[in-house]
Every structure is written in structure tokens, then in C-alpha cells.
Amino acid sequence: MTVGALIDAGADTGTLFAGLDSLGTGAKFRAEKVKRRGIAATFFHVEAEDTKSHRHLPQITRMIDGASLPDAVKQNAHRVFDVLARAESSVHGVPMEKVHFHEVGAVDSICDIAGICFALHLVGVDTIYASAVNTGSGTVNTQHGVLPVPAPATARLLEGIPVYARGPALELTTPTGAAFLKALASGFGALPPMTIARSGFGAGSKDFPEHANVLRVMLGEPSGASEAVEIRILEANIDDSTPQVLGYALERLLEAGALDVTLQPVTMKKQRPGTLVQVLAKPEDQEKLSALLLRETSTLGIRITRAERRVASRQHVEVATKFGAVRIKVSGEGHWSPEYEDCRQLAIETGAALREIIAEAGFAYRKSLE
Prior knowledge:
370 residues; Alpha-Beta Plaits; alpha+beta
């Protein structure tokens, strides 16, 4: 589906198919225009008579190395198979080089992975972002028998990635797709700020009654607009912790990667004064920070909600002061502020007042604009 979507978005099929031919699999390729629930999409066909039931990682590595593909494409294909081998190795308890690739070792899956990497190269993509991943549900038939969705290797590959299950009770994310996202995606969640140049739809083999079985790609350039970022808000009301404990918990949460932590006085049930602890977290840090909040405070439960925040584009400009170098944060709208940690460190090192260093950094930046 990803290869089909990239073809739909402009990847040249002649160049793409010639590169895949050089893998030496004997497969034939074609792109077909189809419709899924009324949405026009491209279906990528891999037609092969593959008599080999499985392959090992070294065999697949040699196939990729021997192909007439750009070095960057080969490197990305190796990255995908490496993360896949690591997941399979963990699930089956065998060394990576001894992993039997069953479904993913078949010709069509090898061509899918190499095709994704080459198609991305052809359309000039250097950074990939993805939405949360729909795993599907139910069961799937594999070489290891009937397994729950997501299958063990897929679940291992999706660790740290936001997922959900919606739609028909079948496998909607394969190990191939999960490995591609794990190896090459830079982030997951809301659409990053970009100017869309073109888009494309790749079709799946089935046509679902509930929704169009398509995958969409959007290609474009960073726009510099305020970024929409999906986050998690972790909250707990606490009425039996000391200020020392709460202050220490705040420090630990920030050290562990919390985007922000606030403590607010509240009146709780039975007219008890308490504290609302609110933690802003990246989706992938949700469980780690929840466990830390439960361990370091007396709360017995945490509320977790999804939210978005807008992050203005920014850059750092370094200025020289008589105390030392200080970075200045500058937003896309021209607002600026001296970097607190730089000023704090200089205050410790020099013994100067923090407010004096902040003022000096601000003066130096304004002078640089003249």
C-alpha cells in the first residue's frame, strides 16, 4: 500500500521497477488504478513464483547489496530488515542471523520493503512522519499457527508507537509495515507543519464496507507554521503529600522527559486543601511518566487525556556578553528570550546576578539587530 501510494504521488514506475528487477527475484511488477469505497488509488502488484518458504537475514542482505539501487536506498532497506530481525530474534529467542523470515522473507515482502525505500528516494523524501497506527484486531494465520492481532513480532515493533484498533476484525498492520515505520519514521501523531505539494493513495487488496482500504501519503516542505503536536495530559489530585515530596516528584518528572509539570492548589472533597499535579507528556512517554508519578507521590490513580498543543517555529541565535556566550530563542514571529539555562550556568560560574546576565544578553541581542 505504501509503494502504491508513493507511485500515486509521483514516483516513476519505470525507474522503480528497474531497480526492483535488479534484486534478482524474478518477480514482475505493475501498478493498477483501482477504487476503494469510491476513492481512486494505486494497487502495487508483485507477481512472483517464490518456492522458498523462508530466508535468513544474511541472504536478504546479499540480495539488497547486489541490487542496482542507490546506497541510501540500500542503507534504509537494511535498517528495516535489521529492526525486523531484532524483533523476531526477541520473540523467538534466537540470534538475529538465525531468524527464519517466513512471510517477510517471501519475494513480495522483500520487494515491498526495497520498493518503499526506493520510491521514497525517487520522490525526494528525507523525513517521514506517521499518524497513530491502526493495528486491526481478531486473529491472523501464520507459519506459527493462529495468533492474535497484532502478532508478536508486530507488537514488539510497535513498542513506543501510538496505536489503536478500529474497523474489521483482521490484521491491518503487518510486520513489514510496522518495521518500515519503526526504522524510518521520525515521529507519530498530528500532521506536522508543511506546505503540501502532492498526495497519493495506495490500495489494499480487500475492499471493506466500513471504510476505504487505502493508505495516504502527503509530500511537501516544512512550512514554518506553528506545529500541531499530539500530547498526553497526566493529572492527579493529591491531599496527603508534603511540599518536599511534590517538589522532588516535579524534578524527577522533568528529568524523565516531561514537557512540563505544574502544581496547582485545589480544594478537594470534604473541603480538604490539596494539589493538582499536571504533567504534559509525549505519547511515547505516557507509561513511563505515569509509573514515575505513582511511585514518587501518594496518588492511587491518574487521569490521562489526549490533547494537542501548538508550538511556534523557533531558532537559536548565540550572542556574546561580558559574562560569556548566551543562546537567544527567537520565534518565527520575531519574539525572543535569553535561554534561561545558559544564563543560570553563567551566574553560577561568574557569581554575577542572574537578572544582570539576562539583561546583558537581551541588550547584546538587540544590538545585533541594528
